[in-house]
Amino acid sequence: MWKSPWLRRGLALLAMLLLLAIGLRYSKNINWNPSRSIGQPMDSLDGVVVHYNGGVGQSHSRNTSPDGYNIGLRYQCVEFVKRYYLEVYHHKMPDSYGHAKDFFDPNLADGRLNKARGLRQYVNGGQSKPQKGDLLVWGPSLWNPYGHVAIVRALGGYRSSHIESLYYIQQNPGPFGDAQGSLSFIGPSQVKDRLLLGWLRMPN
After folding, report:
1. What's the Cα-to-Cα distance from 41 to each of 11, 61, 102, 120, 152, rounded to whole Å?
2. What is the C-alpha separation between 121 and 114, in angstroms, rounded?
3. What is the pLDDT at residue 12?
4. 3-state SS class at 81
């Protein structure tokens, strides 16, 4: 049974892929950057601090407000955006749990109220371009099944009356990642990023 060279090669390849998958999973729970320490301030927006998390899969104690509102697991991306909305807008989400991808309701029409988050939801490429303070939501990917969230910090790069760039701030970009990032527009309200589902905004 084991004498077939094709079978042996297939089993060896399967074992290598399995070890690689396990290694990638656990590597996300390690701080590979010795120049940074867990919880270290990296940046801030409107006085709300972005902290260093280490490996993207690392999680620490749960952050809650004095009245028990769940802000999120410390130093994850979700914790920052919820802390930003709490401190800047005094906003508490009706549903205070969920992964980043869960912040966007794919069944909701563009511009309608996302009742779970208490925020108005816009689709990437829909009726409204992002604004400063909007909560960006990325969907899952092969290497990140939980999605990602960030806050729009500025728009800029105007040309021919069109905005060219979106600048955002994020928590948990990875051991060597930057708290600040940018994306380009490919239409009046469409951002060039296939995983960017859309953005949430405080209701008027």
Report:
1. 46, 17, 26, 30, 19
2. 6
3. 62
4. helix
DSSP calls for 14-44: HHHHHHHHHHHHHHTTS---TTS-TT-EEEE
* Angle, CA of 150, 154 and 157, to the nearest 5°: 125
Confidence band (pLDDT; 50, 70, 90) for 57?
Answer: confident
More confident residue, 128 or 59: 128
Contact indicator for 52, 66 with CB cutoff of 8 Å = no
- What single-letter DSSP state applies at residue 171? S
pLDDT in tens, 163-189: 789 999 999 999 999 999 999 999 999
What is the rounded CA–CA span in Å between residue 202 and residue 90? 11
pLDDT at residue 151, as a whole number: 99
First to last CA, the chain: 70
As given in the structure block, the two tokens for residue 7 are 């079978």
- Helix/strand/coil for 149: strand
Share of the chain above pLDDT 90, in %: 73
C-alpha distances (whole Å) from 91 to each of 115, 140, 190 are 13, 25, 27
